[in-house]
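User: Good morning. I'm curious how pyridoxal-5'-phosphate would be positioned relative to this chain. Could you predict the structure with it bound?
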Amino acid sequence: MDKINWSELSFGYMPTDYNVRCYFRNGKWGELEVSTSENITMHMAATCLHYGQEAFEGLKAFKGVDGKIRIFRLDENAKRMQSSCEMIMMEKFPVDMFEEAILKVVKMNKRFVPPYESGASLYIRPLLIGTGAKVGVSPADEYLFVVFVTPVGPYFKGGFQTANMVIMREFDRCAPQGTGTVKIGGNYAASLKSGEIAHQKGYSSVLYLDSKEKKYIDECGAANFFMIKGNTYATPRSNSVLPSITNKSLCQLAEDMGMTVERRKITVEELPEFEEVGACGTAAVITPIERIDDADTGKSYVFAKDGVPGKVCRKLYDALRAIQYGEAPDHYGWTTIVE
Ligand code: PLP
Ligand code: COI
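Assistant: Good morning! Here's the predicted structure, ligand included:
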């Protein structure tokens, strides 16, 4: 293996040694299988290719200060994949098999877990797809679960640095009663065009509003949003955002710090009242927002200066990272140690 420059990693794909797979055939899940191939072969009429029967997850493993490898909130990701499956009529992958598959793939690719000092991590990408052939629109009768890993650095360039986002009302990520609450490929396909336009204009991401009224803040294409006002941590409650496991963890940490946590509808008009705003997610960790530009009204909302994160974002970021890297006690049992 060529020497990896761990501290220079971006959020990209790098081949690793093994992936783990499991097939649903004849009405049942088979045994976990280990593969060294980066390819999948399937029928050209597979439902994942035609009708979007595809769900994925994203979680991370960290090499701790004590040299141990910790996986963050494995059970939560397993359960969320099940709710994605329910939404698009896919066969659910059992939680215990999900956990076993992830522990196995991390263990077998141990040498790719970035060292503690690098601040990088091992991204774990479970995927579940309909592989059964159908021409009429209906759920497949065969499925494939596969999980691969790849070492990653920060999702938004520059690590714990501020990013700028843009509101553009002509694009929706998902429908009001649609699939926004689950992690399926179609949501991401729907965000590609607006995402590209935002990138071309120099923004890290689009900040989507609710698709019905275009009044409330939802989230960005790959992360939830939170806002800080005094001693309050506020985050949008919506039928069209993904329930972020990072956000759920930050709500708990904020509460533990004595903050008030509000999960409620948050309007664009409220933005000037907040002192700090951040995006959060497995890939994004916490990405403090420096400025949100509203491309339709021409208004700009500024929350930070010269790339310097606000102090509450910093405190939350440090608290979360400390648990993930084994520097602080894991009071809630969020991490699973890979023996
Ligand atoms: N929202 C969307 C649309 C995402 O893709 C992600 C990433 O998983 C998140 C939010 C953050 O969720 P989590 O913290 O569980 O990674
Ligand atoms: C994650 O945060 O794990 C994500 O899945 C975001 C993105 C890479 C889709």
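The mean pLDDT is 96. The longest helix spans residues 185-200.
Let me know if you'd like a different ligand tried.
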